[in-house]
Write a structure and sequence with these properties.
One of its GO terms (cellular component) is cytosol. There is one protein chain. By secondary structure, the protein is an alpha/beta fold. It is built from 14 helices and 12 strands. 45% of the residues lie in helices and 17% in strands. The strands form 3 sheets. A 5-stranded parallel beta sheet has the order 4-3-5-6-7, with helices on both faces. The protein starts with 10 loop residues before the first helix and ends in an 18-residue tail after the last helix. Bound molecules: 6-O-phosphono-alpha-D-glucopyranose.
């Protein structure tokens, strides 16, 4: 009914718009003066944190893309060796795990079969397991050593949106805690990052107010059958998530590539029928990505850019520009993912798709 959807026509639209509140509740009470408190579910001794060398992040689908973002932030804020894998691969690989390994399993539902199997494998090999999930009573929540809950509220739309936002929040808290407690980050820098994180829900809300820009882009591009999504660094996993959303709910083929890798294959596909969706916030890799945008333009591909406020240069390069607020570069994924979720939603709507219940997909995949 409409009331369950708060007046939105679909759960997905409602859940996209809840993301400011979701991030706020995921962070709530966890950012303290001088430290991060992950709550009663997480019981690590200073000795354990000091002896850690490796962190593995394991998940499926959208949760996997949250892990790829986390990989980048963990590498920046800690000195740990970080490995990320899809659960269905990780469970069959010959990974090295020991007492110096923290394995993090990220699953919205806490019931994804491959993720559960990967957790059991790590546990049997003596690694410490942290679960990050939105469902308190889930199998994952019950089986892990340590538990971090998202507090996103139930997500009904099959395509994950607000739980991705909650996962990013939880994973950034984890990275900040590890960097802070292990002394990898200097305390003043840790304080600065914590204060940025605290203000992020407001920035998320600013992006949510800009839906009409994204809707316009969807009206221009909904008829195309193939998209190439590009990004570098923190924006690469967001390009992957944006392409996944488009596939899932509009059944439009979209492929994501690391922008610098485009020349090794996908550039052969470029032509006026293949739009390029580029995630290009103003960060240290901006110029690099911009040169890839020029390459796409030279092949006459239409370019849609998700770019920062105040970036005038991009207007000369892209056919359509969708704006996000400027932010410290580590935090752009929280903002740039939103227009991509909205783009997929509006394309699906214009194509007359199901949206909340896409064909062939399940909310949680409890078989291998
Ligand atoms: C299914 C859902 C996706 C989700 C994935 C992983 O494929 O349709 O939206 O990202 O499972 O689910 P999990 O509950 O483990 O995060």
């Amino acid at each position: 009914s409409m009331s369950e959807k708060d007046g939105y026509p679909h759960y997905m639209a409602k859940e996209i718009h809840e993301q400011g509140a979701v991030l706020r509740s995921t962070l709530k009470g966890r950012l303290l003066e001088g430290s991060v408190d992950l709550g009663d579910g997480v019981n690590w001794t200073p000795d354990f944190l000091g002896s850690l060398r490796r962190i593995h992040l394991v998940a499926c689908g959208t949760s996997y893309y949250a892990c790829l973002v986390a990989e980048r932030v963990l590498e920046r804020w800690t000195t740990l060796d970080v490995k990320v894998d899809i659960a269905s691969e990780y469970r069959y690989r010959d990974v090295r795990i020991g007492a110096d390994t923290l394995a993090v399993f990220v699953s919205q539902s806490g019931e994804t079969a491959d993720t559960l199997a990967a957790q059991r494998k790590v546990r049997a090999m003596g690694g410490r397991c942290l679960g990050i999930t939105n469902v308190r009573g889930s199998t994952l929540a019950r089986e892990v050593h340590d538990l971090l809950l998202l507090k996103a509220g139930p997500e009904i739309g099959v395509a994950a949106t607000k739980t991705f936002m909650g996962q990013l929040g939880a994973l950034y808290l984890l990275a900040l805690k590890l960097g802070w407690d292990r002394g990898d980050l200097n305390p003043a820098e840790a304080e600065r990052l914590a204060s940025i994180l605290l203000k992020l829900p407001y920035e998320v809300e600013r992006v949510l107010e800009r839906e009409s820009e994204v809707k316009k882009a969807a009206e221009t591009f909904f008829g195309f059958d193939n998209f190439l999504f590009l990004g570098r660094g923190f924006s690469y996993p967001i390009a992957m998530e944006g392409a996944l959303k488009l596939k899932e709910i509009s059944y439009v083929h979209a492929e994501a590539y690391a922008a610098g890798e485009m020349k090794h294959g996908p550039i052969a596909l470029l032509e006026p029928n293949v739009p390029v969706m580029v995630v290009i916030p103003k960060d240290g890799l901006y110029e690099k990505t911009l040169s890839n945008v020029q390459e796409a333009r030279a092949r006459r591909s239409p370019v849609v850019a998700v770019a920062s406020d105040g970036d005038d240069l991009i207007c000369q390069m892209a056919d359509t520009v969708i704006r996000i607020p400027r932010c410290d570069e580590c935090f752009s994924p929280f903002l740039s993912v939103i227009p991509l979720q909205m783009f997929a939603y509006h394309v699906a709507l214009l194509r007359g798709r199901e949206i909340d219940q896409p064909r062939n997909l399940a909310k949680s995949v409890t078989v291998e």
